[in-house]
Design a protein that fits this description.
The protein is mainly β. The chain is built from one helix and seven strands; from the N terminus they run αβββββββ. It is globular.
Length: 118
């Protein structure tokens, strides 16, 4: 997923924060990206996964999960449900003003919950 996030952030013209020397392909390094924010639409969400992690873009939420657009979710770029309990942080590019919108409430429907992104 980190590779997908790097590509999207670079396409928007944003930079990867002050820590350019930090490997953006290691998910937990995204905790250094931009500025801290609440989970809002489009925010980069960083999740724990063992000693590593997972990164995706916030799309929505239900009571127990975030709906996340990301790569390496069922070996593809998809929207998946990731448990809120796994959230390590939410980040927003320092080069853009933060959004003040709430994440929309969504219904699970066709979105699968994921615990081990591959």
């Amino acid at each position: 997923m980190a590779q997908f996030s790097v590509k999207i952030i670079r396409l928007t013209g944003s930079v990867l924060g002050e820590n350019q020397h930090t490997n953006p392909y290691w998910a937990r390094n995204w905790l250094l990206f931009g500025q801290e924010t609440k989970p809002v639409p489009g925010a980069v969400l960083i999740f724990e996964r063992g000693s590593g992690g997972h990164v995706g873009f916030a799309v929505g939420q239900d009571d127990t999960h975030f709906f996340v657009l990301g790569g390496n979710q069922s070996d593809a770029v998809t929207i998946a449900r990731v448990a809120k309990s796994r959230l390590l942080g939410a980040r927003w590019p320092a080069t853009f003003p933060p959004r003040l919108l709430r994440l929309p409430t969504m219904k699970p429907g066709e979105f699968l919950a994921t615990t081990n992104e591959i």
